[in-house]
């Protein structure tokens, strides 16, 4: 009987990561794959478009959890996924990343005696004020198999007492996702579709509470974005949460009336990456884009005190900065120029999904 595998898709960053693995596992004769969508992101721009972009089928199971506090989301996912497993058991559950659903599904499965693998395990920011860090620590502490994207993640897990035989360094699946649709990204023509005519620009994404929840910090960022836009046009993909904070602080109108700032809605992966690949630099507080810009050799300015992806600092194009340093950092990057030919981190090669499938087969059939 084939090994029954649940692949959990929970929130926007997860969808693109599960796609390459889903396609590889679906071709195996030793397992069957069930795609489970928890519904943690319920906005069509932030979930459904990712299924279309990566040719994923309609999920076999949709938990339809929706929004709520961290505790509410985690609790509802645990209850709903536990019921699914009790009615239709799996042999393995694969969770991805560091969102609330990651830990919730891992916990529900482990307590029912189902083996769990964590894709993108071992990443650490050392900042426990970040909900994602708690999810990473808790998930890695209870799962059976940990797939790491970089060697520093292995080091983190070993230092925490995880047994070596539970850790497999498989590389960064985010880049499999990019390569899976690279031709479509190149031909997307997103600038034309959005009515933009920019030959040189920066791409901006901001959503973390540390940057957008405090009105004074947000005002400082807006002032610097306006300043930067006088030298480099900016395309700002505005997260719904960020838009609400900008409106509440009376700052949205400022950006709307700044000629060099182009506000757009959140994009599907293909359209967004078309903008990223054409950008002179990225300004962000997100996690994934730190990896993609390192892969592409595009400077990335991350408005955070820390990152769970330090390899993008030591072997990539990423740099951390505080909100007050943004304008000066942009000037420094523009003076330095691009460095697209720099070496990529080990196993960041677009082949991680195959290594993950081999690892799962080895452990599942042992």
Report on this structure:
This protein is an alpha/beta fold and 366 residues long. It has 18 helices and 13 strands.
Keywords, separated by commas or semicolons:
Rossmann fold, 46% helix, 366 residues, 18 helices, 15% strand, alpha/beta, 2 domains
Oligomer: single chain
CATH superfamily of the largest domain: Glycogen Phosphorylase B
Q: What's the CATH topology name of the largest domain? A: Rossmann fold
Number of strands: 13
The structure class reads alpha/beta
The dominant shape is: globular
| Overall mean pLDDT | 93
Q: Let me know the largest β-sheet.
A: 7 strands, parallel
Number of helices: 18
- State Rg: 20 Å
Number of domains: 2
Strand order of the largest sheet: 3-2-1-4-5-6-7
Relative helix content: 40-55%
State the end-to-end CA separation. 14 Å
Please give the structural blueprint.
Layout: E1 3-9, H1 12-25, E2 31-37, H2 48-53, E3 61-62, H3 70-87, E4 92-96, H4 100-111, E5 115-119, H5 131-142, E6 145-148, H6 151-159, E7 167-169, H7 173-180, H8 182-186, H9 190-193, E8 202-205, H10 209-212, H11 215-229, E9 234-237, H12 240-248, H13 252-256, E10 261-264, H14 269-277, E11 281-284, H15 288-296, E12 300-302, H16 311-314, E13 318-320, H17 326-336, H18 352-364
Parallel strand pairs: 1-2, 1-4, 2-3, 4-5, 5-6, 6-7, 8-9, 8-11, 9-10, 11-12, 12-13
Helix pairs in contact: 1-7, 1-18, 3-4, 4-5, 11-17
Describe this structure in a few short sentences:
By secondary structure, the chain is α/β, with parallel strands linked by helices.
């Amino acid at each position: 009987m084939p090994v029954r595998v649940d692949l959990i898709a929970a929130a926007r960053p997860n969808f693109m990561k599960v796609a390459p693995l889903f396609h590889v596992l679906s071709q195996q004769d030793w397992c069957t794959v069930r795609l489970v969508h928890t519904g943690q992101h319920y906005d069509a721009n932030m979930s459904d478009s990712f299924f279309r972009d990566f040719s994923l089928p309609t999920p076999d199971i949709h938990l339809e959890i929706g929004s709520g506090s961290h505790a509410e989301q985690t609790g509802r996912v645990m209850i709903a996924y536990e019921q699914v497993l009790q009615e239709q058991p799996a042999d393995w559950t694969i969770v991805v990343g560091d969102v609330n659903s990651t830990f919730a599904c891992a916990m529900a499965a482990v307590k029912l005696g189902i083996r769990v693998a964590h894709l993108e395990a071992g990443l650490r920011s050392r900042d426990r004020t970040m909900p994602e860090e708690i999810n990473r620590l808790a998930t890695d502490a209870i799962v059976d198999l940990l797939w790491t994207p970089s060697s520093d993640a292995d080091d983190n897990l070993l230092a925490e007492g995880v047994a070596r035989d539970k850790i497999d360094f498989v590389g960064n699946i985010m880049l499999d996702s990019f390569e899976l649709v690279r031709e479509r990204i190149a031909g997307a023509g997103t600038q034309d579709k959005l009515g933009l005519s920019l030959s040189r620009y920066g791409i901006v994404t901001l959503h973390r509470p540390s940057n957008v929840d405090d009105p004074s910090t947000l005002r400082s960022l807006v002032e610097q974005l306006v300043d930067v836009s006088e030298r480099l046009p900016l395309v700002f993909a505005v997260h719904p949460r960020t838009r609400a904070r900008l409106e509440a602080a009376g700052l949205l109108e400022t950006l709307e009336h700044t000629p060099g700032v182009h506000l757009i809605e959140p994009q599907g992966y293909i359209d967004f990456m078309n903008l990223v690949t054409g950008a002179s630099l990225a300004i962000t507080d997100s996690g994934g884009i730190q990896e993609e810009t390192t892969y592409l050799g595009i400077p990335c300015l991350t408005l955070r005190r820390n990152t769970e992806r330090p390899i993008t600092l030591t072997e990539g194009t990423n740099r951390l900065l505080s909100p007050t340093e943004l304008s000066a950092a942009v000037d420094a990057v523009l003076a330095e120029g691009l460095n697209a030919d720099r070496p990529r981190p080990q196993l960041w090669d677009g082949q991680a999904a195959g290594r993950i499938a081999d690892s799962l087969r080895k452990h599942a059939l042992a």
